[in-house]
């Protein structure tokens, strides 16, 4: 067992241990631009600063199209910022972020692999023997409640089941940083609650750094240690940073009725509302001012 | 519709056609039966011709030759197309340079190449294989090229984030994607391999189904031509059925295939 662990996680690329105090992710004055038609540049995100502690759960919230996924892609190393720096555990990031697991907004499972193989592949490509990788994948599928679905292909799973497979696929590699982009976006309200509880349960076992994008404010407050608010794009900025001092462990369906939760919700929504309206370019919705 | 009733209907269609053919070529209901029999032969004559081929055993050799040519054309054409398709898809400059030539070569009616291939490869099987290869190659090539180019970007990013190296990406992402595109055109490419073989034989050969048909045509043996066509049709149906089996096995992960494949 220890041998397999060592093969899987070579010391050189391993995240520095906790306790060294460096943030797991630090985006400093990051500006991201896209080339669009006619050689023009579209500035999606401007001078954004985000930092996530080694054991911290940070949620990013903002109106649709503001640049949340873009920011996450920069932290993942999939996008190079036009300016600003990205540091991972104190080291500047170049290329793919090897310490991060990324749960994508869209379906990202390999459709030609079964659920089990999809979960196992992250270990396999890191050199774990196939039989052992599959064994551990089986136990991860069980942890996300899909023990009997291992032999199914992604198209034979429901949207929520696919998200759970994707979650297992990311977590089995035991990344020091977990990036999640609206992981429960397409799910119904009840399933979101169940998935949120599952996520908190898995996270509380070993408290990795989490950067969690959502457009659901209640979800953000219920899950996170800090909620970061982005302004409407283009040139979206970070406009708010709210610590969430609610006790853990939390039950995310019950926490919503607590006064402290509602006070936070009021404060953050006060800031967010204007941005959401701006994102639709109207300044008002219906008759409401 | 159940399987049995479907089969019954399919047999019924054949029966109706054969009966109509028999009536037209032996009675005065439609017109002069001798004339009709001259142009269309009669079911009995065609059946007895096929019977003689099968019992006499001469047909097996010709079938084997056509099958061999088709298989070789398919395998060689696909292998070349996969290699070059991958290569072009990963090297954009190369694809851009060769783009007009690929298009021009694909637009060329391949039949005009048959005499050249006969000149180059002789009257044996290889000139037919070459003709089949030119047909199979482009179908597979375009599909593999597309399959590699149109890999879902999220799946690709995800694979990268899961720690895959370029080689592992090739094996776990690009390859399955390209293969799925290739298999989706498997019926067409196998069909074209057969077309290449038969047309090649028809234009000049010493064996094969195309040769049989051409020989019968040379002596105005309409019964022989029809008999050759029926054997060819049965041959193609059998191959198509085999392809369907292979496809179901290989593409279980695709929604359309597994739904129809019960
Ligand atoms: N490849 C691209 N080229 C040009 N513009 C892009 C590209 N990707 C994103 N954008 C633009 O950047 C902005 C931010 O996009 P992003 O996907 O990060 O939004 P988001 O906050 O994740 O939105 P949502 O909540 O709807 O997922 C959008 O205005 C989008 O149109
Ligand atoms: Mg997004």
What do these coordinates show?
The complex is a heterodimer of chains A (289) and B (262). In chain A, 34% of the residues lie in helices and 22% in strands. Chain A has 289 residues and is an alpha/beta fold. In chain A, β4 (83-88) and β5 form a beta hairpin. In chain A, α3 packs across α4 (130-143), α3 runs parallel beside α5 and α7 (217-223) packs across α8 (259-279). Chain A is globular. Chain B is mainly alpha-helical. Chain B folds into two domains: 1-40; 42-260, Orthogonal Bundle (MetI-like fold), CATH 1.10.3720.10. In chain B, α4 (58-90) runs parallel beside α7 (125-149), α4 (58-90) crosses α10 (186-203) and α10 packs antiparallel against α12. Chain B starts with a helix and ends with a helix. The model of chain B has no long low-confidence stretch (mean pLDDT 89). The chains are: A alpha/beta (289), B mainly alpha (262). Chain A binds chain B through residues 76, 78, 96-98, 100-102, 104, 106-114, 121-122, 125-126, 153-156, 169, 173, and chain B through 154-155, 157-165, 168, 172-173, 176-177, 180, 252-255, 258. The structure holds adenosine-5'-triphosphate (ATP) and magnesium ion (MG). Magnesium ion is lined by residues 68-69, 105, 181 of chain A.
Helix and strand topology:
The complex is a heterodimer of chains A (289) and B (262).
Chain A: H1 2-8, E1 25-36, E2 40-52, E3 57-61, H2 68-76, E4 83-88, E5 91-92, E6 100-103, H3 115-124, H4 130-143, H5 159-171, E7 177-181, H6 189-206, E8 209-214, H7 217-223, E9 226-230, E10 238-243, H8 259-279
Parallel strand pairs in A: 3-8, 3-9, 6-7, 7-8
Antiparallel strand pairs in A: 1-2, 1-4, 4-5, 9-10
Helix pairs in contact in A: 3-4, 3-5, 4-5, 7-8
Chain B: H1 3-26, H2 33-40, H3 43-56, H4 58-90, H5 92-107, H6 114-121, H7 125-149, H8 153-161, H9 166-184, H10 186-203, H11 209-218, H12 222-250, H13 255-260
Helix pairs in contact in B: 1-2, 3-12, 4-5, 4-7, 4-10, 4-11, 6-7, 7-9, 7-10, 10-11, 10-12, 11-12
């Amino acid at each position: 067992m220890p041998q397999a662990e060592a093969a899987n996680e070579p010391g050189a690329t391993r995240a520095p241990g906790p306790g060294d105090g460096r943030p797991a992710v630090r985006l400093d004055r990051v500006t991201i631009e896209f080339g669009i038609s006619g050689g023009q540049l579209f500035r999606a995100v401007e001078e954004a600063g985000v930092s996530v502690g080694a054991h911290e759960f940070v949620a990013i919230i903002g109106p649709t199209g503001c640049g949340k996924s873009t920011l996450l892609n920069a932290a993942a190393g999939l996008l190079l910022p036009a300016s600003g720096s990205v540091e991972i555990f104190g080291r500047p990031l170049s290329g793919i972020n090897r310490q991060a697991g990324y749960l994508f907004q869209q379906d990202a499972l390999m459709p030609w692999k079964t659920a089990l193989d999809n979960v196992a592949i992250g270990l396999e490509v890191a050199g774990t023997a196939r039989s052992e990788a599959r064994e551990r994948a089986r136990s991860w599928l069980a942890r996300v409640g899909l023990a009997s679905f291992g032999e199914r292909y992604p198209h034979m799973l429901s949207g929520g089941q696919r998200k759970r497979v994707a979650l297992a696929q990311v977590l089995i590699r035991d990344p020091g940083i977990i990036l999640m982009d609206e992981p429960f976006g397409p799910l119904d309200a009840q399933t979101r609650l169940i998935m949120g509880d599952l996520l908190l349960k898995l996270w509380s076992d070993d408290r990795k750094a989490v950067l969690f994008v959502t457009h659901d404010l209640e979800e953000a407050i219920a899950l996170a240690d800090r909620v970061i608010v982005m302004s409407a794009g283009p040139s979206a900025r970070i406009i708010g940073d709210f610590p969430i001092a609610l006790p853990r462990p939390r039950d995310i369906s019950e926490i919503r009725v607590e006064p402290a939760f509602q006070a936070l919700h009021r404060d953050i929504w006060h800031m967010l509302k204007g941005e959401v309206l701006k994102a639709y370019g109207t300044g008002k919705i219906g008759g409401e001012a | 519709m159940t399987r049995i009733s479907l089969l019954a209907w399919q047999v019924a269609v054949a029966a109706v056609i054969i009966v109509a053919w028999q009536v037209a070529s032996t009675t005065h209901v439609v017109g002069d039966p001798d004339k009709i029999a001259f142009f269309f032969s009669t079911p009995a004559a065609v059946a007895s011709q096929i019977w003689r081929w099968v019992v006499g055993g001469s047909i097996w050799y010709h079938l084997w030759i056509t099958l061999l040519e088709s298989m070789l054309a398919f395998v060689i054409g696909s292998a070349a197309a996969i290699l070059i398709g991958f290569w072009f898809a990963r090297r954009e400059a190369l694809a851009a340079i060769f783009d007009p030539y690929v298009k021009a070569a694909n637009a060329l009616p391949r039949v005009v190449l048959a005499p050249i291939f006969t000149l180059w490869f002789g009257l044996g099987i290889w000139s037919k294989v070459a003709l089949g290869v030119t047909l199979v190659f482009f179908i597979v090539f375009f599909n593999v090229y597309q399959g590699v180019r149109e890999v879902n970007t999220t799946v690709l990013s995800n694979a990268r984030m899961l720690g895959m190296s370029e080689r592992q990406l090739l094996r776990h992402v690009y390859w399955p994607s390209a293969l799925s595109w290739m298999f989706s055109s498997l019926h067409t490419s196998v069909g074209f391999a057969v077309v290449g073989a038969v047309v090649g034989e028809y234009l000049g050969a010493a064996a094969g189904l195309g040769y049989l048909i051409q020989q019968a045509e040379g002596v105005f043996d309409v019964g022989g031509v029809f008999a050759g066509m029926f054997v060819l049709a049965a041959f193609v149906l059998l191959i198509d059925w085999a392809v369907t089996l292979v496809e179901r096995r290989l593409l279980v992960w695709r929604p359309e295939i597994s739904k129809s494949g019960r």
